Amino acid sequence: MVLLVLLAAAVRTAAGAGAPATAETVRLLVVVAAPMIAAVVLSSTLQGPDAALERCAPRLSSRWRAGHGCVAVAVASGALAWAAAPSPAALDGAAMARNTTGLLGAVLLTAALLPSVLSWVPAVSWAAVTYLAGPRSGREGSEWYAWLLQPGGLDGSWVVAVLLLVTGVLEYAVRGPQLTAAPTG
To answer: 38: Cβ–Cβ under 8 A, 6 or more apart, which residues?
Structure first.
């Protein structure tokens, strides 16, 4: 639903002035929406179907969780960057990899703090708000709060994305997902 609202807002913004969508509008939409979809997909894999079984296995689950988070980020970031490779002028593969890294880190962090079924909500909300209301001109200092909209070059936006990833993987590995019990009765 949120993705539909985001897409509708982008189309309305592009068509609002009666002009076709600019290349920058389309690039930003793809560079923000594709990692957002990857974050929603990852969030569905963070908790098993039975909350009681989640913590009873006699294994070092923190290593498994850290590995799960790192592999998911590597696969999703690599796949999206690879998908953007044929048209680097239209799509920014480095920005897609950075946005995927940051949003998946935010999902992992949220899964350790909120019930894991809600872990996608903050990442998708931030992406939607940033896309709809963020600065388009590259204002000084905006790479810290509007890091999703920045070009893929190495700057402060990468620092934010990597910090989100490291914090998310560590919290998810140590605390695990916050469990939601199945409804009874």
So the answer is: 76, 80, 100, 103, 104
